[in-house]
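We treat protein structure as text, and this decision shapes the records that our systems exchange. Such a record has a labelled line for the sequence and another for the backbone structure tokens. The record that follows is passed on verbatim for readers who wish to inspect the format:
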Amino acid sequence: MYIVFILVYVIVVTAVGLMSMGKVKGVSDFFLGGRSINPWMSAFSYGTAYFSAVLFIGYAGNTGWNFGLSALWVVLGNTFIGSFLAWHILGARTREMTNRLKASTMPDFIGIRYQSRYLKIATALIIFVFLIPYSASVYKGLSYLFEQVFGIPNITILAIIAFFTAFYLVLGGFVASTVADFIQGLIMIIGVIFMIFHVLSHPTVGGLTSVITSLGEIDSKLIGPIGPPGLISTLSLVILTSLGTWGLPQMVHKFYTIRDQKSIKCAKWVSTAFALLITFGAYFTGITSRLFFPESMPTINGVANPDLIIPQVLIQTLPDLVLGIILVLVLSASMSTLASLVLASSSAIAIDLIQGIFWPDIDSKKLTVIMRSLCLVFVIFSFVMAVLPNPIMTLASLSWGAVSGSLLAPYLYGLFWRRTSKLGVWAGIITALGTIVGGAIYTGMEGSLMPIFSAASIVLPLIVVPIVSLATSAFEEKHLDEIFDITKKLSVTVKSTN
């Protein structure tokens, strides 16, 4: 029965890729969908890029088992900060400025905003290099779930997933990705509702009230406002998985592509509701995992592996029909995230480096071919890294810390603060990379500590950039007026006064 669900999904995704192929006339269509995506599709695309196998298999299982009910702080953070405030604060400003400045990527915007080709090159390389671990973590999450259900060797599943992701994305680009995201979002909503119902109904769980009572009997800290790992670990996870999305190019990309300013309000509320349902379902299932494994996590060859928690819980609680839906849910969410990652990474090289630096007058068709080729290269690199033995949460933390830490402060201050200086931006990037890379080396990629260093790499540049900016030279007022469209606003004001 599981195979039937998977085959139907694969057929739908293949059809979407083939149908979207004819709509791709150039790079703008391939990467931005012509900046004409409607709000519902934009919201679903944002949500499905946000929540993948990394959430369901990696974070939800590990966090729920270790933190207990305090894992719900992550749900609130992802919903309010990662979704609502992201759209509310960044959405309209990002679309207006990037459209007016003709910036199609984050490195492109940063290069224009700070008048620096070197910043553009640096941020493009950071995106391409450090999104590979995140993509690998998505592959690993999928492979663990499918291996547990089907018993198929891990590497075989990874190869199949890589092939189909590359197939529909290379054919239809962002157009195919967005249509697929909408379908995948609907699947996720249905699947999570079924999952919550069956997990709560299972005799081991025994309903919502019983969950709280049973967790308290295992460890009273599991039902407290702050779980056993403590305040710093809890706060780090909230910052990493919520504020971290503000600096991820595959998430910000959704603001570039939405149809118009009015659509952002609708997309904001749809995205927020989607985030609340999906994250609650995932993390609540992770919380209940303690009832199935009260003493220790599931193991592989005698070694505890947090990535097995959710697959084992789902196998025990869900009937075959619902488990088939959940398999498609995780598959669809993950392929959507992978598509967003691949587009963000390939654009960093094709648009920001090849077209933006080395070959400015390249033909649009040639650039599209290069982007398609880079999509394949990125998928292959991610596949190779996914085969290596690193926990999902560790890979994702490394990626989010490096990419969001390097880009969030330059991007956020670039949108709103005129006084941000070029040296301030460089200082922020160096701080972020030094913190996350140094933390990875110091801890030996220790899973419980990496989220703390990742959160620090996101927060510290937000402090460093303004301090260094105030101590260094600002940009000329003429350039800043053009960036913030002051000249046009002053002209309108003068005309209305006369």
Notes: The beta strands are 299-300, 303-304. The first strand starts at residue 299 and ends at 300. The two ends are 73 Å apart (CA to CA).
